[in-house]
Each structure stands twice: as structure tokens, then as C-alpha cells.
Amino acid sequence: MATNQAVNLRQTILLGGLTFLLMLPETLPVPVLRDLVATRFGVSSGLATLFMSANMVGALIAAPLVGMHVDRTGRRRKLCIALLAVDALLMQALAHPLDFAVFLALRTFEGAAHVSALTLLMSLVSDAAGERRGRALGAVGCGLTFGVATGAAIGGVLGKQDPLMTLHVASVVLAAACLAACWLLPADAGVQRRPSYRELAAVVRDQPGLRAPLLLAFFDRFTVGFFTAGFTQFLRTEHAVEAPVIGMMLAAFLYPFALLSYPFGRAAERWSRLHMVGLGSLLYGLAVSMVGSAPPAAMWTLMPICGVTSAVMFIPTLLWLLDSAPGVGRSTVMASFHAAGSLGFLIGPAACGALIANGGYALAFQVAGVSEIVGAGVVVWVAVRRRRG
User: Fold this and answer.
1) Cα torsion for 134, 345, 149, 91, to the nearest 10°?
2) What SS3 state is found at 156?
3) Range list of H helices, 74-226
4) Are 151 and 30 in contact (CB under 8 A)?
5) How far apart (Å, rounded) are the C-alpha atoms in residues 47 and 111?
6) What Å distances lie between residue 388 and 211, 279, 381, 384, CA to CA?
7) What global pTM score does this model have?
8) For 268, which DSSP code?
């Protein structure tokens, strides 16, 4: 598929499948995190959560640097394939006997390789899709969310007898993604000139239109951090809900999100992206704010609402970001989107834990929902005023 022509429907579906292969390994270990980290290394549950935090730190540091590098050189395709190969090797290395500090260091590098590869994939797809960017990124978003949901669903089964099996399978899937990428990734568009790193950094720092969608990416992933840290704990400790049922509730969130990413991405090619983001953020924030005080039966309604409204705003936010980006630095801008999301995901679980300890689950999820509504409301209001000005 190494072509500069706009991607067609078949190619769009295949690229969504490649994204699925890229994302599935990241959540395979999550259901067996306690045995994989806490029991294996003899550390506390709190230290075991560093497995996820180290991943986000790696992504936060590496993605912008990789984005600036490829915007200078124009060479994204080969680097994306190489990063997928490195990711597969690092995931396999995590399964071998290691010191806990070395384990976390490797996990940090694994997160850096993984999110950098995802950034380059999305950047290549965005450029190759042309006017069909909304539907192409929608297919990528569909594959992304399906991968996250499926990995979390089957990770517990794979790791029931041996938690290390999740890492072995994750490595094999990433290797398959690497091979598939050699065939599926669009060609590099090339660069007409080589901007300096200072110029590329200034693109993100000085471009006013980028701040709103980057803030939205932060707030969206910030609220996801609350689900990671508090949702399972809330249902298990407050309502004694069994783990398989909790998994089905999370699926009721993630699968509508995945299924609707493509149609809403396609709709965003015609509809107002600003209106979609504003409406989606409002409804999503309201639903999140009710999670911590709702009975388990209500989750079967709240979770699909969260999934649908997430799909409404996800691709339109990304398209809004790309619309605001100047001609130079597109990969840097895409990397900044992922870095902002990684920062939100890094802070979200810590904020959730502190709020639960001091005010309970209802307060924690109310803060998460209100932060989404207020954050989105402010950035949309500022964007509307700037457009009118």
C-alpha cells in the first residue's frame, strides 16, 4: 500500500485492522496486573500500578521528539515499522527474569516505542486520506478502541494460569503488526524543506488554534484515568459486583465507542466539528459525573452513553487539531495530541485515588465529569470567540 493516492474503503478497513493489532497488546496484561507485577516482584499494589504509569511517561517524553524528527526528515514509514519491531522485542523482554527497576525502565521504553509508532501511523493515514481524513481516522479510532477492549477482555483468560503468557502473546501480536505494517502503511509524503527543531517546537507553543484540542485531549484521557483507577474498585468494594460482570460493563462502554468512531468520523467531514465536540463533551461529562453514585443496574445505561458520546467527540477533536495545524509540523502536532492524552492519563488515576480517599467515589467521578464539561466548555467558548473575531 506504499502509495501517495488517497486511501480507499478497503485500505481504510485494513489500516483499522493494523491499529487493532497495535493496540491489543497494551491491555492484555492489565487484568492480571497484580500477579504479573505485585506477586512476581514482591511489591505493593501501589507500586504495581507503576507498570501503567511508566508506559505513559515513556509516551509523554518520546512522542513529541519522534514527531519533530520525522517532520524534519519526512521518513515516517520505515521508522514506524522499526518502532513496532522494537516494541515487540521489549514486550518479550518484560517476560524474562529482571530486577524491578530494570522491569520499569524497559516498560518506559516500551511505552515510548508504542505511542511513537501509533503517532506515525495516524500521521501517515491522515496525510494519505486527503479529504477522506475523517473516515480514515475514524477507522483507525475504531481499531484502536476495539484493540483496547479486546485486550482487556481476553487478557484475564490468557493469564489465568501464567500471567507471563500475556506478555508472550503481546509480543507475537506486535511482531505480526510489524509485518502487516510493511504491506499496509501508506508511503511517506516527503518534505520540501527541513525545519529546525526550534521551529517545530514553536509550531505547538505559538499556534493559538492548537491549544483548545490539545486541552480537550488532556481532559478526555484525564477522565479515562478515573475509570482505570476507580471504576472496578467502586463496583467491587461498594456493590460486590463480580469481575466478569465489570468486564461486560466496560465492554458496554468501549464497544459502542469503537463501532461509532468511523460513522462519526465520516460525519465530521460534513458537520461542524466544534458543535460535535461541544455536545459530546457535555453529555459525556454528565454521564461520568453520575457513575460514582449510581447503582450497578444503572451502569448498563451509563456505560453505552459514555461510549457513544466519546465517539461523538474523539475524531472531531483530532480533525479540529489537524485543521488548526500549519503546513509544517503535522507529525509534531499529532505527537502533541498523544502526549497531552498521556499526561491526562498519568494524572487522572492519582487524582482519582486522592479524591476517593478524601471524599468517596461519588465526589471523585463528579470531579471527573465536571472537569470534562468545564474544560470543554471553556475551550469551545474561546474557539467560538476567536472565529467570530
Assistant:
1) 110
2) helix
3) 77-93, 100-129, 133-158, 164-184, 197-206, 208-226
4) yes
5) 17
6) 17, 20, 11, 6
7) 0.88
8) T
Domain boundaries, the chain: 1-188, 203-389
Indicate the helix (H) or strand (E) that contains 50.
Answer: helix 50-73
Whether 168 has a pLDDT exceeding 80, the answer reads yes
d(CA 241, CA 258): 25
Identity of the residue numbered 300: W
pLDDT in tens, 16-55: 999 999 999 998 998 888 889 888 999 887 788 788 889 9
Decide: 307 and 254 in contact? Cβ < 8 Å.
yes
pLDDT tens for 212-264 read: 889 999 999 999 888 877 888 888 888 988 877 887 888 899 999 999 999 99
State how far Cα 235 lies from the chain centre: 24
The residues, any chain, with a CB within 8 Å of residue 388's CB and separated by 6 or more, are: none
Residue whose C-alpha cell is 461542524: 272
**Axis-axis angle for helices 273-291, 208-226 (nearest 10):** 20
Q: Which CATH architecture has domain 203-389?
A: Up-down Bundle (1.20)
d(CA 122, CA 71): 14
pLDDT at residue number 2: 45
CB 257 within 8 A of CB 144: no
Q: Which of these, 34, 4, 37, 19, lies nearest to 262 by C-alpha position?
A: 19
Q: Is the dihedral of CA 220, 226, 229, 233 positive or negative?
A: negative
Q: How far apart are CA 88 and CA 97, in angstroms?
A: 17
**Res 389: pLDDT:** 63
* CATH, range 1-188: 1.20.1250.20
DSSP one-letter string for 312-360: HHHHHHHHHHHHHS-SS-HHHHHHHHHHHHHHHHHHHHHHHHHHHHHH-
How many Å apart are CA 134 and CA 3, to the nearest integer?
Answer: 19
CA distances from 150 to 133, 219, 276 (A): 25, 24, 27
Q: Which of 311, 188, 186, 198 is nearest to 261 (CA)?
A: 311
The type of residue at 175 is: A
d(CA 157, CA 166): 9
Distance CA 69, CA 221 (A): 25
| 346-347-348 Cα angle (round to 5) | 100
